[in-house]
Specification:
By secondary structure, this protein is mainly beta. Among the domains are: 125 residues, no CATH class; 90 residues; 151 residues, no CATH class. It is 5% helix and 52% strand. It is built from 5 helices and 56 strands. It has a 30-stranded antiparallel β-sheet that branches. It has a 16-stranded antiparallel β-sheet that branches. A hairpin with a 5-residue loop joins strand 12 and strand 13. The radius of gyration is 43 Å and the shape is elongated.
Length: 919
């Protein structure tokens, strides 16, 4: 009995009974004591006879060896006791199975110890070492170390339960498979496997080892359905190395089961999961004013898993060329960013013609962000966009109308550090850049230094709350230093741009306190002391020879000190107008925050000098040597102002449409309505400043944002358009004269109300270039990668479970922007700006998307920028057409290509470009 059980458990790999969860078809194991004892006795005798038949009948003579007397012991041998025990010369027999087996089946699991077979049928599963196998039928021969798996037929005679073989991270789904788990060799019929974006199917596959497969009559594609792909590549021979490469013989491209004339004698496809270096195939274009062109060709360098580099270039037959360097980098939980450098040498027309021109333009973009958890006490960030002012207007590598129409390029690089001292100190360094693309003026700060020490409350108690005038007295220290550079586009990064740099230091010590007055009023009082250092000042004089005023620079350290006083008093007033709980509008709540402020700045006339402004010396003018400083100059006149401001908020309580809710619904009527003005006590005339009114609100469930503002002047103007000391109401007019007004409306509406707007901030590259993040000025067209959709969302992210023939709901979204400006400074009474812009996107069907961006300028009486967008989802392919029919940016573009990045070079595109010569 012991031998029988030992052989049985040895055959099944000594697996525990609890692991064998099968339905046994035979029933030999009934608990009958007599049968068990009889079977054990019979099988024991049978096994003994079998072993007796296998012994050799010849006798073996064993010679007797002479043994030494065991009673004699040498003391020297006592040190060798550890060596006296020799290992057993009979090596244990290696087990057939090297690990445990886990298996199960729906109908039966049959174990044949004689043939050393385990047969599993119907929803069979087998787990051995790193092998996971699921199939309709599995036959495991542990004597030959082979596993066979295949399909089974259902009641209708159709094959079902195809094998699913997985070893490690490699998975294969064939019709049937035969595998030797020791030699790692296998034969696979109609295998189906996925490697990255590729899906491969072959009639017969031979696995040589863990890393090499040979496939016969194979096809591979990036389509979702490998059984019925919209396109695939067919080859008779294929060598496949998982996660490394695919090498094929003669390869033919098949589209919709129709062979195309596109064929290659051989092909190589990298299959690694990490980025690999390789050639980027350029795009040919023949419809260009610069002749034929090859664009966006180059080389991709996978330098590391942390950063990469793409080198791209364009070449035109008239001699124009372009170079681009694009790099991305990231370190998990630390930082991430990207860096783009673009340079273009553009030639228009031919040398000798009157319209011949040659232009060099460039653009540099850098974006860097640090993970907030990387270092809580220091942070570095960068957002850089600078270059030629006309880059986005003349570039041949991309097209974005929003970036084209933008008048400003800006950059910022900053580093901040917090010192956890008492009191806490903060340090920051910032470099900024602002560039006007129309005037080509550039203003930079290289750098701006800011250092501050947190507020100190010298009279506050160590414990308890700070309450009262003295306990709330606090002071702090701020230092700001700037090195400002003003230059032009043509002198950028040349030595001349640093000659007129201005450097200054501003120290400020604000002293303030706050307290309550009459319980309901909040009072604030502050005094500020400032000291400004300059390394360069001016001196003015009159040159009698040239009869002109001369301003000369004085390069030495100089400083001035100023101080000022201010206070404010404010409160908050709540008012509620109730209309009854049965009304639709139950109540309106009005919150007012009035405030009165006073500021005083004395005269600092001691910092002013005089000079003779004519040759006779009779005309004397005053000036201060600090007037060209970056932090301004001390004021000569006494200033004493009283300011008034009032902010309002209106909110309503309405009956909720949901009758199950007992509480009314809150609706914001006006987010803010602000009024502000001031009175100058020391002014000779025109004491009152114009009244400024501004406000904003959100309507229609926050889908429409409304902002408005106006300037109201209380004084009248004369016939020359000058304001004089007389109120407008006393001059026969109204109480106020509206000199300007503006209003903007932004409205977004979608058929998917209540859902997350997938199109939000879709034009990220356009926003980075300085344009808008929406498509009111069309979408950004980057000619280096046309695989991206024009509609801001990926088809793979959309969930659409509709399988019928008709869908009544057509997804759509619309964006509206309206702007109105009124000007009446000198009694013009004219509308200087009045335009409406609109963008509409919709899905005519599951695979068809259409969009349009347009608008109308009512002042110029013309249509604004207009763009039509069409896109067709061709499963693994994408086709789009973009058309701007008229205007300075008129162009059209057509593209069709494979979405997969691995086959991005399989495409065809055709386009024209806008006229860049007159820009």
């Amino acid at each position: 009995m012991y031998l029988f059980l030992t052989k049985f458990f040895w055959a099944v790999g000594a697996s525990e009974i609890s692991h064998i969860f099968t339905k046994i078809a035979l029933k030999p194991l009934r608990t009958n004591l007599f049968h068990i004892v009889f079977s054990a006795f019979f099988l024991t005798i049978g096994i003994t006879k079998n072993y007796a038949q296998e012994l050799n009948n010849q006798s073996v003579k064993i010679p007797v060896q002479k043994q030494a007397d065991s009673t004699k012991i040498n003391i020297a041998d006592l040190t060798k006791i550890g060596d006296s025990i020799k290992s057993d010369s009979v090596k244990p027999k290696k087990p057939i199975l090297e690990s445990k087996i886990k298996y199960k089946a729906e109908k039966y699991a049959k174990i044949d110890n004689k043939k050393k077979l385990i047969t599993l049928y119907d929803k069979a599963e087998l787990y051995y070492q790193d092998i996971e196998l699921k199939a309709g039928i599995i036959v495991f021969n542990y004597d030959k170390s082979e596993v066979y798996a295949g399909r089974i037929k259902d009641s209708l005679g159709n094959y079902t339960q195809y094998p699913n073989f997985k070893q490690g991270s490699n998975a294969v789904e064939p019709d049937s498979i035969r595998f030797n788990y020791k030699t790692k060799k296998a034969l696979i019929w109609n295998s189906r496997t996925e490697q990255g974006e590729f899906k491969v199917k072959a009639e017969v596959s031979k696995r040589v080892n863990d890393s090499v497969y040979f496939l016969k009559n194979a096809r591979f594609t990036t389509a979702e359905d490998i059984e019925d792909p919209e396109y695939y590549f067919r080859t008779s021979r294929l060598k496949f190395v998982p996660k490394k490469k695919v090498v094929t013989g003669l390869t033919n491209m098949v589209i919709a089961d129709v062979p195309t004339p596109l064929a290659l004698p051989f092909a190589f496809f990298p299959m690694t999961e990490t980025s690999q270096s390789g050639i980027i195939v350029p795009t040919f274009n023949d419809n260009n004013d610069r002749g034929y062109s090859l664009q966006n060709g180059g080389y991709y360098l996978a330098l590391s898993k942390y950063y990469d580099l793409a080198i791209l270039g364009d070449y035109f037959t008239n001699g124009s060329y372009a170079l681009r360097f694009e790099s991305s980098y990231a370190l998990k939980y630390k930082f991430r960013g990207n860096f783009n450098v673009r340079y273009e040498n553009l030639i228009n027309s031919e040398r000798g013609f009157p319209d011949y021109s040659k232009t060099n333009i460039y653009n540099i973009q850098w974006s860097h962000s640090q993970d907030g958890k990387a270092n809580p006490n220091s942070r570095f960030s960068a957002s850089v966009n600078f270059g030629s002012s006309k880059y986005f207007r003349q570039s041949a590598s991309q097209l974005n109308v929003g970036s084209n129409l933008n008048n400003t390029l800006s950059s910022s690089i900053s580093y901040s550090k917090t010192f956890n001292t008492i009191p806490q100190a903060n340090l920051s360094l910032t470099a900024t850049h602002s560039q006007n693309t129309n005037t080509e003026q550039i203003n930079m700060t290289l750098p701006t230094l800011q250092f501050s020490v947190d507020r100190v409350f010298p009279f506050a108690p160590k414990e308890g709350i700070k309450k009262g005038f003295f306990k709330n007295i606090n002071l702090q220290y701020n230092l700001r230093s700037e090195n400002r550079i003003a230059t032009t586009d043509s002198l950028f990064f040349k030595p001349e741009m640093f000659k007129n740099a201005k450097l200054g230091f501003q120290h400020s010590i604000p002293l303030s306190t706050n307290f309550k007055v009459f319980k309901y009023f909040s009072a604030t009082t502050s005094m500020n002391f400032e000291e400004v250092w300059y390394l360069k000042t001016i001196r003015k004089s009159f040159d009698v020879v040239t009869n002109q005023e001369v301003v000369s620079e004085v390069n030495k350290f100089d400083a001035f000190r100023t101080y000022s006083f201010s206070s404010s008093l404010g409160t908050t007033i709540y008012g509620t107008f109730k209309f009854g709980d049965t009304k639709k509008i139950q109540a309106i709540r009005h919150v007012m925050r009035p405030s009165v402020s006073y500021s005083y700045t004395p005269s600092f006339k001691q910092y002013y000098d005089t000079y003779a402004a004519d040759g006779s010396g009779t005309m004397v003018k005053e000036y201060t040597r600090f007037e060209q400083g970056i932090f301004g100059a001390p004021g000569k006149n006494l200033s004493s102002n009283v300011g008034f401001s009032l902010s309002n908020t209106f909110e309503a309580k309405v009956t909720d449409k949901d009758t199950t809710k007992t509480e009314p619904k809150k609706v914001m009527l006006l987010n803010n309505l602000n009024l502000s003005t001031s009175y100058d006590i020391t002014a000779d005339s025109l004491h009152w400043a114009p009244l400024r009114v501004s406000g904003g609100t959100a309507l229609f469930n926050n889908k429409m944002n409304v902002n408005f503002g106006m300037t109201l002047n209380p004084y009248a103007i004369d016939n020359a358009g000058r304001t004089f000391e007389k109120f407008n109401i006393d001059n026969g007019g109204s109480l106020f004269r509206m000199t300007s007004a503006n209003m903007t409306l932004n409205y977004s509406l979608s058929s998917r109300d209540g859902e997350t707007n997938k199109n939000k901030n879709k034009n990220t590259q356009g926003l980075r270039n300085g344009g808008r993040d929406d498509d009111l000025f069309g979408t950004n067209t980057d000619f280096s990668d046309r695989r991206q959709t024009q509609f801001g969302n990926d088809d793979s992210e959309e969930e659409d479970n509709f399988k019928g023939f008709f869908k009544s709901e057509v997804p759509w979204d619309i964006n509206l922007a309206y702007q109105l400006t009124y000007t009446n400074i000198k009694r013009e009474k004219q509308i200087s700006g009045n335009s409406l812009m609109m963008s509409l996107n919709t899905e005519l069907s599951k695979n068809w998307k259409v969009g349009v961006s347009s608008g109308y300028d009512f002042v110029q009486d013309g249509v604004t920028f207009t763009q039509f967008r069409f896109e067709r989802n061709l499963m693994s392919w994408r086709m789009d057409f973009s058309w701007t029919p008229f205007g300075a940016n008129a162009f059209w573009s057509f593209f069709i290509g494979i979405k997969s990045s691995m086959l991005s070079d399989i495409k065809w595109e055709k386009r024209t470009l806008p006229d860049r010569v007159l820009r």
